[in-house]
Amino acid sequence: MGCKRVPSNDESTENNDYSLQLSRWFLISIGAWPQTHRSTVLERLSAFVLIPVFSAAVAINAMPCLLYVFFEAKDIQSKLNAAGPLIHRFMGSVNYWMLLSRNNDMRDCIRHMETDWRLVRRAEDRELMIQYSKFGRFIAVMCAVFMQSGAILFSVAKAVKTITVVIDNQTITMHPMTCPAYRKLIDARFSPANEIMLIIQFTSTYVTSASTVCVCSLAAVFAMHSCGQLNVLYVWLNELTENHDEENLAEKKLTVVVEHHLRVLGFIARIESIMHKACFVELMGCTINMCLVGYYTLMNWAAFDAAKIISYVIVYLSMGFNIFIFCYIGEILTEQCRNVGDMAYMTNWYKLHHRTALGFVLIIAQSSNVIKITAGKLFNLSITTFGDVVKTSIVYLNILRTMAM
Question: Does residue 157 lie in a domain region?
Answer without folding.
Answer: yes
